[in-house]
Amino acid sequence: MTVSPAPVHAHRQTSVSAETLLHSTNAGVVVKRTAQLKQAHRAEGRRIALLQAEFLNTKYAGEVTVFVLEEAFGRRDRLHWMIHLRSLAGFRAVSALLDGDEGPAAETDWQGMFTDGSFEETALIPQGWGMYGTDEVLPDGTRIADATPGLRVPPAQEQTAVAPRDTVHSANAGLIIHRVAQPRYAFRAEARMFARRITESINTRLPGIASSFLYEEAFGPADRTHWLIHMHSENAYYDLIDMHMRMDDEVRDIYLDEIIAPEKGGGTWNRIFVDGSMGDVACAPLPPLS
Q: Is there a contact between 279 and 230 (Cβ–Cβ < 8 Å)?
């Protein structure tokens, strides 16, 4: 028995083959659903959530992939579903199944296992250059990626120069940090530029250990920015800390860069976001059913 067991990765929750799975770097949209389990149903709720996710994964293999995670270091018994789709339109087909109208959950008191009013959903679309004013601040020669076949927007993998085999994503991460921040409207383009530069600094320095990607929120507050920071294990968090403690000149330059133009008053990244708006939630995949 050890207090540092091997990390649990979400791809183990499903029988669907790895090449068929959608995840946070090859999907066109990620819908993040959260809900609070009642304490009396904490074990059964997790079990049914995993069974229902597998029901969807096999029914819509190649079109939908659902992983179930639990909040780590935060609110106890709060479940997080990561629902990966090719486009927003796909969510309509699976929403009834997510609610338990069919499948294993339909045979249980599924809705009664959760606190009333605790279900929330956020649709996340991979950020792409040219969106929301970023064309105004892009360096000359920056390539604006095309959408891949079957997707309406370029997937998040297009944000990095790191090869897919060295990318950590929702299927192979042991811990995911969901970071949210609200840019000031005047600096919406600069916020995305800064965020993309920081995410790529992580990706290129910690391949196979940690990967970070930027997403736009659909149907929510304008310009709210989302990062999904994927770590191979909980201990990879220390690699992130070490990277910033031993900051090299290139990373330091990102933080010290006068990214805001003089005509907007000038300044570094710390003027870009609304004070107090940045926050993190950590989630870990549920262990697969034995």
A: no
Identify the architecture of domain 126-284 in CATH: 2-Layer Sandwich (3.30)
Cite the DSSP H helix spans in 115-207. Answer: 188-205
Global confidence as pTM? 0.91
- Quick: pLDDT tens for 27-43: 999 999 999 999 999 99
Domain range list for the chain: 17-123, 126-284
222 band by pLDDT with thresholds 50, 70 and 90: confident
Tell which residue, 167, 157, 175, 195, has the closest CA to residue 236.
175
Q: Is the predicted pLDDT of residue 55 greater than 60, yes or no?
A: yes
CA–CA separation, 13 and 50 (whole Å): 7
Q: Which amino acid is at 91?
A: F
- Render pLDDT for 190-215 as a digit per residue (tens, 0 to 9): 999 999 999 999 999 999 999 999 99
Q: What single-letter amino acid sits at 241?
A: I
Using CA atoms in the order 186, 262, 225, 255, what is the torsion angle rounded to 10 degrees? Answer: -160
Which fold, 17-123? Alpha-Beta Plaits (3.30.70)
Domain 17-123 and domain 126-284, same fold? Reply is yes
The residue with tokens 């969106």 is: 131
CA pair distance 60, 62, nearest whole angstrom:
6
Return the beta strands (E) in 86-206 as ranges.
Answer: 120-126, 175-181
State the chain's maximal CA–CA distance in angstroms.
62
